[in-house]
Amino acid sequence: MSRHVAIVTDSTAYLPLRTMERHGITSVPLTVVLGDRALDEGTEISTRSLAQALQKRRPVTTSRPSPQVFAETYRKVAESGASGIVSLHLSAELSGTHDAAVVAAREAPVPVRVVDTGMVAMALGFCAVAAAEAAETGGTVDEAVTAADKRAAGTSAYFYVDTLDYLRRGGRIGAAQALFGSALAVKPLLQLEGGRIEPLEKVRTASKAIARLEEIAVDRAGGAQVDIAVHHLAAPDRASALAERLRTRVPGLAELHVSEVGAVIGAHTGPGLLGVVVSAR
Considering the entire predicted model, what is its pTM? Predict the structure, then answer.
């Protein structure tokens, strides 16, 4: 049995399945509570079901994985031959997932480094891939963590939402609530800053907001070699059109991913979400 450093992340990384399989990355699901049913993200609830529930204003909440789920994951990964584990998770400012992983890591059969990336969605996914690539070349746990930290430092996430209602309801809006208040005509642009959702700009129409989101992403990419992810919820045409424009406008584009976010992030942003992650290699 070969010994190696294994990478664990969570379902909010929204990594393509082929990428996870290629790099041997293990994902731990968060839970979406729809009415009285607790469902694992990625396997037990579709984004279409979530969008329909939100549009009908049915109660939707989310929950972190339990320490027991992490403990079982670490045990299985260790049994597969891992000599150490790097466990990378969404921002601790947004979820208790990191804390649950820390509890489980104390009793794991091999050393586990739990990392609060301060990221979410493919901003987290790119960090997990960077750590996996370091491990694949024989890197230690420390080297894999360093690779993830470096990738996080060069990654930015921006997003547009049709309404702030879902973020406000879920308590994820922070300072943005004070900035935008009840200005219903405003279409907000937000960013991930310091692991929190913070206001970026306010624009008067959806079309102008999306055009501005594109400009921000192009400016952030500059002339560097970057990977980009375009996320959406129930807005595939918007996402595809934005991705194609970015493909022609970003000279250093290496990889471009387009994907619908899962139910956990979707529950807090609502249908119409359009997000862009720009990550320097």
Answer: 0.90
